Automatic annotation (TrEMBL):
SUPFAM superfamilies: P-loop containing nucleoside triphosphate hydrolases. PROSITE patterns: MRP. It holds the Pfam family ParA. Keywords: 4Fe-4S, ATP-binding, Iron, Iron-sulfur, Metal-binding, Nucleotide-binding. This is Iron-sulfur protein NUBPL. It comes from Pelecanus crispus (Dalmatian pelican). InterPro entries: Mrp-like_CS, Mrp/NBP35_ATP-bd, NUBPL-like, P-loop_NTPase, YlxH/NBP35. One of its GO terms (biological process) is iron-sulfur cluster assembly. GO terms for cellular component: mitochondrion. One of its GO terms (molecular function) is metal ion binding. Transmembrane segments: none annotated.
Length: 176
């Protein structure tokens, strides 16, 4: 399957680092940006357009304009799936994306700590409110494994995402 990955976290783009990509997108003759590609995945991020340490100090309308450009002014080619990595919370980006793009479903990713779970729950409830199916939850930072003895420790707690999934009537799709 052909997969694209759009980093919609304008203030804190992390896809360049996570996907081991650097550089600026080239432009097509139609003035569309070509996504950078690694691991067989086409990626687009604000992180490709600004310096790595440069802060983005923008208000909502500029952020939404950037998300729109990253989505629609990119030559994505023929994709089977476009995964949109959104910032945590229920702000302008999440609301606009969910209202302006046909979304097959949302996956909520959270660490097991109480504060993170508050945001995860709000995110799930927001998607339900705007009629986007919530496909399930993924627990990030599930366990720390000692590199020497391989002992596993649940530094951030063990059951937070499981408990939230049960409360929301959702499945756990995985643990990272």
């Amino acid at each position: 399957k052909e997969v694209g990955l759009l980093d919609a976290d304008i203030y804190g783009p992390s896809i360049p680092k996570m996907m081991n990509l650097k550089g600026n997108p080239e432009l097509t003759p139609k003035n569309l940006m070509r996504p950078l590609k690694n691991y067989g995945i086409a990626c687009m991020s604000m992180g490709f357009l600004i310096e790595e340490t440069a802060p983005v100090v923008w208000r909502g309308l500029m952020v939404m304009s950037a998300v729109e450009k990253l989505l629609r002014q990119v030559d994505w080619g023929q994709l089977d799936y476009l995964v949109i990595d959104m910032p945590p919370g229920t702000g302008d980006v999440q609301l606009s994306v969910s209202q302006n793009i046909p979304i097959a479903g949302a996956v909520i990713i959270s660490t097991p700590q109480d504060v993170a779970l508050l945001d995860a729950r709000k995110g799930a409830e927001m998607f339900r409110k705007v009629h986007v199916p919530v496909l399930g939850l993924v627990q990030n930072m599930s366990v720390f494994q000692c590199p020497k003895c391989k002992h596993e420790t649940h530094i951030f707690g063990a059951d937070g995402v499981r408990d939230l999934a049960k409360t929301l009537g959702l499945d756990i799709l995985g643990k990272i």
